[in-house]
Amino acid sequence: MAAKGAKIKSPTMSSVYEFSTFMEPPMGGWLATFDCLSRSLRVVMAFYALLVTQPISLFRYLNKFHKLFHWGSWASPIMMLFFPAWPFVMLATVAWQKLRDVIWPPKEINCFFTEPDGLFARWLWAFYMESSVPLAIFMIHGDSTAAVVNAWHDFVLTKPFWRRHMEKTGMPFPLQLGCWDGAECDWWARAKDKGADYQVGDIVLKLMDGCLGRGDTFLEKGKDGFDGTIAAVNRVLEEKYRGTKGVLVLEWIRPAQGREVHSFDIVTMVTPDGSIQLVSCLYWGHCRNGGSSTHDSTAGFVIDVAKEEVIRAASWYSALFAESMGQTGPTMTGTGMGFGEVGIGSKFPGLKEVCEQAIAGHYSALEEQPWLHAIGWDAMFSTTGPIFFEGNYASHRIPRRVFLTWRSWFYFLWNSCAFASMLERRVTAYEEKQPCLSKDNRPMSGPLPLAVERAGAAEPKRVAARAGGLAAFA
Fold first, then answer.
1. What sign for the dihedral angle of Cα 293, 299, 300, 304?
2. How far apart are CA 24 and CA 147, in angstroms?
3. Which of 129, 135, 270, 282 could in theory staple to 265 by disulfide, Cβ–Cβ 3.0 to 4.6 A?
4. What was the pLDDT predicted at 471?
């Protein structure tokens, strides 16, 4: 944090920041049938606009995308036969998926992906969610192979990748105590060369290439037989992660005194003029059953970063938030302190600087991965101050902003050619040197750049790709 009294530079706001921050609910409210229909209509219109303006690139891109996400080896013949009718093919794909969900119901639906009530609204929402992702990626990244592959799985953008760039730009992040290679743990930092009975305290175990909290394990001293020692951590690693390489052992970061478990969802984006700007900042909290992760959130808010203040509910994000928050969200007249006591009017002093750090981190990541035009950062106000957990390729976050309103839709559609031109100049040589797909557009097998940073070390420690690597998708 800056010294007391220092003037904090306000992060550069993009046009999309205005669209994603200062908008009113549509007729009938967020996630109502009209809203779902409007978002779906914007997806369909975007496709046909892109079909007219960039037909060859769009065909090539969707062929690669669907080989990974939906149709496998059938992607090429389906695209050859039905390319002009792509939205209707996606409608049929979604209908099949909904039928499959009836036969084999999913075990659990993440809070960020819950669907609205009503058969028609649910079908439209599912179509919008499935179709908006490939089109939004294309509009921002053009026909980038790396963008497609990393939207499917974090092959390059692993946890160590983000930690490396956060360290480079001075962004605070959790201390890493070790790395599990599938058979044993290499302990670092304060746990290095310590005995089995050394107290490491509360620990979080994270997969190097995991997302949405999948594969995470939270170990709290005194619960479920965990005593906080190195030996206890090794036992859990042996039981749950035997054979899984690259499991990070991190200190468990707690929220600041008086604050609930929460996260700031900060999205940054490369704009057509080449600058990196803030797209939006959301707050996730009110976790179910006192959960330790905001993947169990029941409340979300939109923050005006310029004022560092909550201004409205993020009811537009998913049906869960539209139901739990209503169309406006609860008003908070106090300081916003206290467990769960966050609402309209809550203040978060220091958030502007956090967003400025996120932009700096994006500039650093872009130097290594020049195709990476959109990043979603996860941060929190902790007991030691603001802290970043990680960055994420915003392949599934940015579409919610692209198709949210007609204004944002027009902005991205109007600038899609500029994005593609800028990306082509920047990454053509990069992708030729580091091919991600084989000639048949399948992810290539072989070693992956999964670097694991030693705490304070100048050189990264390379580890082998996780079992199966990209060959699992071949």
1. negative
2. 32
3. 282
4. 31
pLDDT > 70: percent of the chain: 81
Cα separation, 124 vs 36, whole angstroms: 6
Please give the average per-residue pLDDT across 466-472, as a whole number.
28
SS (H, E, C) the chain: CCCCCCCCCCCCECHHHHHHHCCCCCCCCCCCHHHHHHHHHHHHHHHHHHHHHCHHHHHHHHHHHHHHHCCHHHHHHHHHHHHHHHHHHHHHHHHHHHHHHHHCCCCCCCHHHCCCCCHHHHHHHHHHHHHHHHHHHHHHHCCCHHHHHHHHCCCCCCHHHHHHHHHHCCCCCCCEEEEECCCCEEECHHHCCCCCCCECCCEEEEECCCCCCCCCEEECCCCCCCCCEHHHHHHHHHHHCCCCCCEEEEECCCECCCCCCCEEEEEEEECCCCCEEEEEEEEEECCHHHCCCHHHCCEEEEEECCCCEEEEECCCCCHHHHHHHCCCCCECCCCCCCCCCCCECCECCCHHHHHHHHHHHHHHHHHHCCCCCEEEEEEEEECCEEEEEEEEECCCCHHHHHCCCHHHHHHHHHHHHHHHHHHHHHHHHHHHHCCCECCCCCECCCCCCCEECCCCCCCCEECCCCCCHHHHHC
Amino acid 441: pLDDT: 40
Over range 418-429, report the average pLDDT.
64
Cross-strand bridge partners of residue 187: 178
pLDDT at 267: 97
- Taking 90 as the threshold, does the pLDDT of residue 207 lie above it? no
Report if pTM > 0.90: no
